[in-house]
Amino acid sequence: MNKAHYAIALLSTVLCITGIAQTQPPAAPQGGPPQPEFIQQGNQLAREGKLQEALDVYQKHLSVPADAFAASIASGNTLDLMGKGDDARKHFSKANEIATTPQAKAQANRATAMSYAFEGNCKKSVEYQQKVFDYQKQQKDFFQQGEVANEVARVCIDSGDFDTAYQWYKTGHDVGLQEPNIKPDRVDLWNFRWEHAQARIAARKGNKADAEKHVVAAKAILDKGTNPNQVAFFPYLAGYVALYTGDPKAALTELQKANQNDPFIQTLIGETYEKLGEKDKATEFFKKAAATTAHNPAGAYAKRATRDRKIG
Questions:
Q1: Hey, CA dihedral for 98, 101, 107, 113, is it positive or negative?
Q2: Which residue of 83, 123, 205, 236 is surrounded by the most CB atoms within 10 Å?
Q3: Residue 167 buriedness (CB in 10 A; 0-12 / 13-18 / 19+)
Q4: Tell me, what's the pLDDT at 312?
């Protein structure tokens, strides 16, 4: 298996570019190259919470030419999970240096962008995600441009930079709609994501009326039935808006309907219990969130929030 195939196999499990909330990495595509054995071994150790052991496995392959790119990315991801961002980015820089294709360089840049998400650094995350966006632009892949833009927007809203988040969410929406011969369900998808984003940004800015207006608009798009796989993201939206506009009881009701395996949702539920004065329940959910191995905006936020509380 060559470097490019290794990279694809690895990234199918450790990267997740999405417009809204999914946080656990998708399974490897059917028919795609299998994961290298050492990546499978390291990933299993990471899932068991044995991050140092996983890192040791990956780093044994850093000097193997055929494995070096995948090992560098995996090592960097693991170091970010361990809270060692500077060390992580040395590995991502090495991956960029040895990448043999523009796609691989984009993958290394995306990993670097996510590394800065673990530190809540919107500006630096944008710097590297812009390179990924430019790569997708060269490919004329409008959908992936939108995905990449939405992902960095998610980093920025979670980092408290709401204006930059708005700009990137709007870019994602607008470029996504430029897809040639776009189908109505795809139009609805981008419009739903845009309403979802605007509602969350308004909530974070304390504008309850505007947030609720966008929640209603998002629900109306979902009710058309064109994107049933997005229905699961609505309780997250309703709960998020309720939490940030001062109604933790309503937030808890909605968030309990959302994906309970999502570290971002787990973190939001922990924050909701905090506001309700239920410390033990909050700690229970923060501990779940702290165990995430997702190297994406949701995982980054969960790690930051739990580290701030000295959990995990």
A1: positive
A2: 236
A3: middle
A4: 76
The pLDDT averaged over each successive group of 10 residues in the chain (312 residues) is 42 38 35 79 96 98 96 98 98 98 97 98 98 98 98 98 98 98 98 98 98 98 98 97 98 98 98 98 98 97 96 84
pTM (whole model) above 0.85:
yes
Alpha-carbon span 29 to 92, nearest angstrom: 24
Q: Which residues contact 86 (CB under 8 A, 6 or more apart)?
A: none
Cβ–Cβ under 8 Å, residues 276 and 285 = no
Instruction: Round to whole Å and give the CA distance between 99 and 69.
Output: 7
Burial of 299 (0-12, 13-18, 19+ CB in 10 A): buried
List all residues 6 or more positions away from 44 whose beta carbon is below 8 Å from its beta carbon. Answer: none
The single-letter code of the amino acid at 139 is: Q
Q: Decide if 271 contacts 305 (C-beta within 8 A).
A: yes
Non-local (6+) Cβ contacts of 165 within 8 A are: 122, 153, 154, 156, 157, 197, 201
Residue 221 CA: distances (Å) to CA of 53, 74, 166, 257, 276? 46, 38, 20, 19, 32
- Whether 132 contacts 150, CB under 8 Å: no
Tokens matching residue 222:
């979902």
CA dihedral 288→19→100→4, nearest 10 degrees, is 70
Within 10 A of 231 (CB to CB), how many other CB atoms are there?
12
